[in-house]
Design a protein that fits this description.
This protein is an alpha+beta fold. It has four helices and four strands. The model has no long low-confidence stretch (mean pLDDT about 80).
């Protein structure tokens, strides 16, 4: 495997772009237009956690609930480009989309205690199961 080599000039160029050219406020406004929510979820062995999630309801009757779960190093932002397509209509499949931020990611609360009975890489699976149960995706 070949090592990735970064040139100092490239790093300076990228840092300058982010600091002086990139429109952070436009990105912030775009993200704030999305339907964000937070809910307290009881996670077995970890207590209550405030979990952020994006919830886009389709206006199409009979839309299918769709749970979008990100992995590391991703986030709920990955689903935002697909949201317009998932609303459905005009004979296209329609989905009610729920995209939670897993604990320790984005706007969700991080875990405060270590549980020796669960390996850290499995935590996301357990927490996702608890989130799905608490959010009751089927009734959304």
């Amino acid at each position: 495997m070949q090592a990735l080599t970064l040139k100092k000039a490239d790093i300076k160029r990228l840092a300058s772009y982010w600091a002086t050219t990139y429109d952070w406020r436009a990105t912030e406004a775009q993200l704030n237009r999305l339907p964000h929510f937070k809910t307290k979820v009881q996670v077995d062995g970890f207590g209550d956690l405030d979990i952020h999630f994006l919830h886009q309801k389709s206006e199409v009757k009979g839309a299918i609930p769709l749970l979008f779960v990100h992995g590391w190093p991703g986030s709920w932002i990955e689903v935002t480009k697909m949201l317009p397509l998932l609303k459905g209509g005009d004979g296209k499949p329609a989905f009610h989309v729920v995209a939670p931020s897993l604990p320790n990611y984005c706007f969700s609360e991080g875990v405060k205690k270590v549980n020796a009975n669960r390996h850290s890489s499995a935590l996301s699976i357990w927490v996702t199961a608890d989130i799905v149960a608490d959010l009751d995706i089927g009734r959304l």
